[in-house]
Design goal:
Number of strands: 11
Number of helices: 20
Strand order of the largest sheet: 8-9-10-7-11
Distance between the termini: 53 Å
Largest sheet: 5 strands, parallel
Shape: globular
Structural class: alpha/beta
Radius of gyration: 26 Å
Strand content: 5-15%
């Protein structure tokens, strides 16, 4: 591949784009774009400003995606490089992974003047277009995979290929707040719309469904219209289904569930608790919620948290040092939502105050979000956990042995001490075998590299971190 490959690719793309858009649009929005590089299916282009990038994303994303796919292939990706306004590093943003999903029009019964039980459509129009309520940011491309959600993602991808035709119907996703249930459920819906544009997909929260039902029964004979509308869905995603606790709502939903399931339509539910723990649910509905596949989303491990931070900071066009990313991933362990909130707060604070993003700034921001770090974790406790995990003695760990298992255990202990406790390199070295700071730095780098390429080694680190999390408070 020649050094000018990116230029040749973009020139060919321009020729195709010129046949699609108007001459004025081509001159204004595509001529100024300059190709910078092409590597591993990723074309990086330079655009004049942030406004320019946002305009392309809003109005010409579909044109860019189709052109690149035809020129490069199905896995083609686009990254914008925004020229700096002042003396600062250029910002890089990946192009959006998908467009806003749009449903085809459907025919629904004409609504009476008294009101419409369906807030997704305009009364009196026939046929009507249903707003899918899907957020294009919640696609698979923006979902970070890890041990915590691997089963859910695998099942979701299978459903997206064959909605309503797998054993995963319904799919019931459950877990604590902020673990990505809504993101995964919507990602499945978005992927289905990409593969099957003709299908009607709808995402709705259980609370909104309940409100719609109450509005429907308050208007004479409008319950029939309400039920008829929902029974026309090809894919129905109900978020936080634990909130659907009233008997009347459950009865209406039971009828919708039976109709859709028998018709081979796909059903996806999320909940903050397992089906067996749902309270005040009719047994007949509860049994149907347990019918297909139930998947628990768990707390993300360190590697997944770190990967999420890198992905999100890239989407924000901000480059953060490994020290900052590692600090955030180590400090906030509960869920993706808190982690993402801390990252956005950090970026916003640094942007508004014109400060450099450092570990010290990250520490001040995260303290406001999750409170002071109350931890009785020490380097000695880290060492004991590592020794227990690898079934070695403390003397072995602190010795000069070059046996592979001992060396790896020692390096992991140094890595954990650095990332969980933020101890200085010299302090870690003095307490773990009397090593100098360069040895500790090399150990941390080695562990991070091995985690990215060796699944077994990554599991070692994850397991040990789980042993230490309770001690961190």
């Amino acid at each position: 591949m020649t050094q000018d490959t990116h230029i040749l690719i973009w020139d060919r793309c321009l020729k195709m784009i010129e046949q699609i858009v108007s001459p004025r649009a081509f001159e204004t929005w595509f001529k100024p774009i300059r190709p910078e590089s092409f590597l591993n299916g990723v074309l990086t282009v330079n655009v004049p400003s942030e406004f320019f990038r946002e305009y392309l994303e809003e109005y010409y994303l579909d044109v860019l995606k189709k052109t690149l796919k035809k020129e490069i292939g199905a896995d083609a990706k686009l990254v914008y490089r925004v020229a700096p306004v002042r003396v600062q590093p250029p910002m890089e943003y990946p192009a959006a992974h998908c467009n806003t999903p749009v449903n085809k029009p459907i025919n629904v019964p004409s609504f009476r003047q008294a009101g419409s039980p369906n807030p997704f459509v305009i009364p009196g129009l026939k046929p009507v277009t249903v707003n899918s309520q899907l957020n294009p940011n919640y696609c698979f491309g923006n979902l970070v995979a890890g041990e915590c959600n691997k089963m859910g993602i695998t099942a979701g991808e299978s459903i997206a290929l064959h909605p309503g035709k797998t054993a995963f119907n319904p799919l019931f996703l459950f877990g604590g707040p902020g673990l990505g249930k809504t993101h995964l459920a919507q990602a499945i819906g978005i992927a289905i719309k990409e593969k099957y544009p003709e299908l009607v997909v709808l995402y709705v929260s259980a609370n909104r469904f309940k409100t719609q039902f109450m509005d429907a029964v308050s208007v004479k004979n409008n319950l029939t219209d309400f039920l008829s509308f929902y029974m026309k869905m090809d894919v129905l995603i109900v978020d936080d289904i634990q909130d659907m606790s009233s008997p009347g709502t459950q009865n209406a939903f039971f009828q919708i569930f039976n109709h859709l399931h028998q018709a081979g339509k796909q059903l996806i539910f999320t909940s903050d608790r397992a089906p067996v723990d749902l309270k005040n649910f009719e047994e007949r509905l509860l049994s149907r919620l347990k019918w297909g596949l139930s998947v628990e989303l768990q707390r993300p491990d360190f590697a997944t948290r770190l990967s999420m931070l890198k992905s999100r900071s890239f989407r924000e066009g901000v480059k953060l040092s490994d020290d900052v990313l590692i600090y955030l991933a180590s400090r906030i362990t509960s869920n993706f939502r808190e982690l993402e909130g801390a990252l956005i707060s950090l970026i916003a604070n640094a942007t508004f105050t014109h400060k450099e993003i450092t570990v010290e700034l990250a520490e001040r921001i995260t303290t406001k979000i999750v409170g002071e770090q109350k931890s009785d974790l020490t380097i000695e406790k880290v060492q004991k956990a590592v020794c227990q995990y690898f079934n070695i003695t403390m003397d072995n760990l602190l010795s000069k042995s070059r046996k592979r298992q001992i060396v790896q255990a020692r390096q992991i202990a140094m890595y954990m001490s650095r990332n969980l406790l933020k101890c200085s390199l010299s302090t870690i070295g003095s307490e773990i075998g009397g090593k100098d700071h360069s040895t500790v730095l090399h150990a941390c780098s080695t562990v991070q590299d091995l985690m990215s390429i060796d699944k077994t080694f990554r599991q070692y680190v994850t397991d040990i971190e789980k042993m230490l999390v309770p001690a961190r408070g």
